[in-house]
Amino acid sequence: IRYENPKLGKLQQVLQDQFQELKSSRGIVFTWTRQSAYSLHEWVLGNQALCALGIKSDVLTGVGSSSQTKHMTQQEQQDVIQRFRKGQLNLLFSTSVAEEGLDIPECNIIIRYGLMTNEIAMMQARGRARAPNSICSILAKTNSKEVARERLNETLEILMESAIKWVQDMPEKEYHQKYPTVTRRVNGEVSRENQKITSHLGKTFPLCSNHLQPSPAVQYLTDCCASLYTVPQVSQLMSSIAKLQHEGMISRKLRDIKLEQQRQLHDPDSVLFCCLNCNLAVCRASDLRKIENMHHININPNFSLYYKKSQDCVAISRKFKDWKLGNSISCEKCGQIWGVEMVHRDFILPMLAIKNFVVETPNGRQKTRKWSKVTFEIKAFDYTEYCNITF
């Protein structure tokens, strides 16, 4: 079988090797996003070769809300872990939630699928492989940023272990005497490296230069290692870290600039929202507001004429401090689901899912699955403005 994504072929090979050799194998595949975890799970379910080996998989993700995929409740998390412990499942596709904190049985297969994380996350994931003869595999494209980051993580891990041993073996009195010296010794090198990056970013993106700071973990690690390694060695390590910080900072800033330009393409008054099913125009983009920068609601009182409510409230086990879910809402004309009501500050507000609408702009009609892709600005919800409109 050949896959368009070569990592899937490698993943199948690793799973086949392990599950053929040890029938009692149990493993976790760590991936970056929930969507990726669900996609990989679906891929395994449809893979006859893997199913024939007795692989029984499921997904384990965090409890936080997401606009892309359904989040898990704490009870659902515990149910999956319990089935994994009892042997009803032997493979989990998980985000970083399974790296630490959750009581997960020991595994003999750990796979990091296209991840680019720090050395601590790498060690936490690998720490799940506690069973005898266990393996930890990394699946990434050759010479990719993920591979470069993993190699740096391995170097940082060695330095961290050396630093910890050095601190543990040091007499307390000597530590108190030496640590101020260590701090002063390294600060000069760290400062010079950060000045170079900040200067470069300041010329390119003046607004973001003040946000570039060394990671506290990296700073502490460098402090501890200063007495073990020469200043040039520490400086070389910091240069590698600084380069990654530099690239990441520029990438994020370019993304933010692109999104800001995208949101200025159309006047919200010129954009219509139409029902996905019956194509009825029901509101303008200027009627929309954001709560907590993630919940998109309609503040136009006349919008209620276009939808009907379900008889019962949407039930979820998780409770939120400032708001709760009400009834689901759907098109009055055709019954297409639009979203759910949100009870916020004692006001009942219609919260919309953009995937249930067709967005009509001066440049044409489009279906958008993410609010981050819209081409108009959405203001933040203002309590006073809403009261003035409603009362």
From TrEMBL:
One of its GO terms (biological process) is antiviral innate immune response. Transmembrane segments: none annotated. GO terms for cellular component: cytoplasm. It comes from the Eukaryota. Residues 14-171 form the Helicase C-terminal domain. One of its GO terms (molecular function) is double-stranded RNA binding. Residues 261-388 form the RLR CTR domain. It holds the Pfam family RIG-I_C-RD. This is RNA helicase. It comes from Laticauda laticaudata.
